[in-house]
Amino acid sequence: MANSSPVDFFRYSIKAGDSLSLIMAKFYNLGFHSPDYAKRLAQILSLNPHIKNPNLIYSGTSLLLPSPNISSATLGAVITAQFQDQMCLPDLSYGAGLLPSVSKDDEANLWLLSWLAENSDALTIPGGILLGAQSNLLSPGNVNLIREIQTLYFDYQSGALTKGQYDYRRKQKLDLLKKNIGSLDKVLFGNKTPHQAVRIARGGGIPATQHIMQNADKLTKLASYGKYGGYILAGVGLAAGCVRIANEDSQQKKNEIFVETIANTTVGVVGGWAVGVFLVSNPVGWGTALVLAVGTAAVSYGLGKGVQNAYTTFGNKVDLVSGMGVNSICQ
């Protein structure tokens, strides 16, 4: 074919267990919900008129496939011009050199990545809510209920409080902690209640308040794990957005995905910071913790969509993806 390189198209030998959907994931990283999935599938069927039912392909037969480097727009133009009879078609068996070999384990990974690229919200939103709720419960407001018991004990030791006053105020704070964290106390304290775990050490050559501070430090560390999980989910969301940008042919759509992803991440980070400031001095229970987490996720998602719509309406002449070099990053 004139104006076409020999590797623009290749023949792929169908293997047992193959389907067109799996082949789409293998070579083009396109899942069912990818914007380009239906277009690319229609083009492959146009190149292979012997396929009467896209759900039925047979091992031992071959497919004519476009190189993953060919854009859908370019391929559509080639097919429209009906040049396929003149194409130079190298015979590519499974992983024969021009395309990477794909193992069965890789197939599962490709499916996962493909699904995640188009459905990242299914993981990042509920995952962010759960991690946010956990971090909210283990916020300084609740952890300080334990630390304050140390202060109460020092007041008792100095004579500022009687034994009865100390016991009463200690019970008040631990009752509130138990109420706030609910069934999470089984995870945090095992078979003990907060009242049994957060006690003065009796003898043994250790400071009297050591058990109190150990439990406070333990809850603080667990809260930090929730934050790390939030960072990971934010990274997953950014990576999924990058994959979507790489798979999209339309520059307009690339920019819409970019502004939505950046807005979601930014609002999520700012919202998480604002909630964290509130929780420094406000111990909250499961209900409030969950409401705050859901609210942060909802605001992040809603503003992300709002920013995307605003860009589509007012800013679509500004090519942010090209201007910021996103295409070179998201390949």
Task: Give the secondary structure arrangement, pairings included.
Layout: E1 9-13, H1 20-28, H2 37-47, E2 62-66, H3 72-80, E3 91-92, H4 104-119, H5 121-137, H6 140-158, H7 163-181, H8 184-189, H9 194-197, H10 210-247, H11 251-279, H12 286-315, H13 320-323, H14 326-329
Parallel strand pairs: 1-3
Antiparallel strand pairs: 1-2
Question: Which key terms come to mind for this protein?
Answer:
331 residues, Membrane-bound Lytic Murein Transglycosylase D, Chain A, 3 domains, 3-stranded mixed β-sheet, 14 helices, disordered N terminus
Model description:
With 331 residues, the chain is mostly helical. The protein has 3 domains: 9-98, Membrane-bound Lytic Murein Transglycosylase D, Chain A (Roll), CATH 3.10.350; 121-134 and 220-317; 142-218, no CATH class. It has 14 helices and 3 strands. Strands 2-1-3 form a 3-stranded mixed sheet, with no helix packed on it. The longest helix has 38 residues, at 210-247.
The coarse overall form would be elongated
Rg from C-alpha positions? 29 Å
Distance between the termini: 28 Å
Please identify the oligomeric state: single chain
The share of residues in extended strands comes to: under 5%
In short:
The chain has 14 helices and three strands.
